[in-house]
Amino acid sequence: MTTPSSSKLPKRLLRYGLTAVVLAFIAVLFWRALSDNWAEVQAQQLQFNWLMVAGVALFAVAVPISGLLWGAIVNRLTDRPAVSPREAMAVHSASWLLKYVPGQVGSLLNKILWGKQRGISRSVMVISFIYENVFLQISSIVPSAAILLVSVGLAVFQDNAITLLLPLLALIPLLVVLDRRLFHPVMNFGAQRILKQQLPKEYFLPPVAVGGYLVSFVGPRIINAVGFVVVAASFLDVSPAAWLPLGAAYVLAGAIGILAVFVPSGLGVREAVVFAFALQYVTPAQAVILALLARLLSTVADALVALFYLLLRVSLRRRPPKLVQGT
Fold first, then answer.
1. N or C: the chain end with fewer CB closer than 10 Å?
2. Which among 224, 248, 233, 290 is positioned nearest to 164, based on CA atoms?
3. What are 206-234's pLDDT values in tens digits?
């Protein structure tokens, strides 16, 4: 008789195998770029400076702001103040730090467990998580792809077809979520099969609210884009004409990294996309350094997010939240 653990083994092996292949391919890509341009890499004389600090701060600030938007979605779906701003930032920051678990499983479970403690429906938590990620992806992909198409031209996308194909294909199911006439039946079908219950239409956002959140989620993406440009300016003489496309490339790279669910935190995938577009404005050596430095500083920013989360938890313990009854 097959045990549950043995039945999951092939899937785990496939996931780990895909992760290893992707990371190995990208490692070879960067190794070749570094080895072919090692003299120029050494000539960069990379040194710590305050622009790097500013970049780290911008990367970190974008996380709690996204948390506020997620909290607003939860409150809208429950039609009551179910989560305070401090709680929203704390819960979202914890989920953000769990992004290193492939597939965002850890991020979702953290929010579901928090919702259970607060008496909020598991269905609401799952739906809010879906909305949050859909808004994040669309607000990342659509503006960034448009900016890059105008800035670098279609030829660059043709040379890196997967860079454009993956996010465009992802937009198809994402757009379904935007219309509750389509999203509600799909989620309701799953709820009936798994949870054995119906989902009220009140759990789904109307078109006006969807439009508002799509615009709002552009804000954190702009902050990330500015942070990346600041990081580039910390060691490169970047022309102002390159600021917008470089920022857009970083945002698009982040979205593609999230779509690569088998790689923790888009490791390597994001850097490869940044490298491909940065080549239009800097040398290969500089593009490699920029991609790797952005990853390093964003990891430092995660440490700041962790510190901010701990401070929020201490603050929240002094004033325990009231439970909210949910379905």
1. N
2. 248
3. 889 999 999 999 999 999 999 999 999 99
